[in-house]
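Notebook, student rotation project (T.W.).
Task set for the rotation: take a protein with a known small-molecule partner, predict the structure of the complex, and write up what can be learned from the model alone. Partner molecule chosen: zinc ion. Sequence and SMILES entered below by T.W., checked by me.
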Amino acid sequence: MKTYKVYAISDGTVIDHIPATRALKVIDILGIENEGILTIGIGFSSKKMGKKDIIKIENKYLGKDETDKISLIAPDATINIIKNGTLKEKRRIERPDTYIDIVKCRNPNCITQSTGVKTKFRVVKSSPLTLRCHYCERTVEAGEVEIL
Ligand SMILES: [Zn+2]
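Predicted structure of the complex:
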């Protein structure tokens, strides 16, 4: 049971290959701070990345909609779903074409600032990841987004 040793949880989700120091931001994006038992590892050595963070969430299986949000800040993260101590599913993060109700628009005159309208950003460039507000057309790079 190699998987069990590596991940040290028997049921839940492990988010691996998060860029170092971004683990807390990932938890923020997912809104899971009050769900299940979280174990956060910061600054692990990684052959691929130098340093990386890892998050383990016990007894919760994150769905694709949830994990795709992570693409904003950790596009190379991997999601591992563990059941009964065995790795059941391993998948990469996928980047959606549109982010709805995830990113805050920084334009103070944007309609999303003064009303309850959900923010909506389209991806207009992939490297560096750049998003454009559907309502006011202001663009923002992923590195400087404010998460709702
Ligand atoms: Zn806007």
